[in-house]
Structure formats: C-alpha cells, structure tokens
Amino acid sequence: MEEHIRHILKAIGEDPNREGLKKTPRRVAEALSYLTRGYEMDPAKVINEALFTEEYEEMIVQKDIDFFSL
What CATH architecture does domain 2-43 belong to? Predict the structure, then answer.
C-alpha cells in the first residue's frame, strides 16, 4: 500500500522523498488499515450476542463508541 501512496504523492506533484513526506506513506497506510479494520472482523464476535429487547419508547444513548466514516 505504501508504494501506491508514493505514486499518489507523485501524481499530485509532491516529492515523496522530501523530508516532510518520507514517513507519510507508512502513516497513511497505518491510518487506512486502522480505519478499515472492521472489514476483517466477524460481526457476530464483535456484537457478542449483545442484542436486547426492551420495552422503552425513549432513545437509548451509548457513549464512547468509536465511529469513523470514509
């Protein structure tokens, strides 16, 4: 993936070998791997049977759940 990111940097007119960009391909690859890690997860294991039937008619709010959108 890093090589592809280097090609993208070149395509937009940047020099991927300049000091400020040398580690950028690795950082971008790590970020994309982190942000898309859910594709490799088994939803059944993530949910872990945490589905509940409730009689509430009010909104239930859960805090501190990471959510990313690409």
Answer: Orthogonal Bundle (1.10)
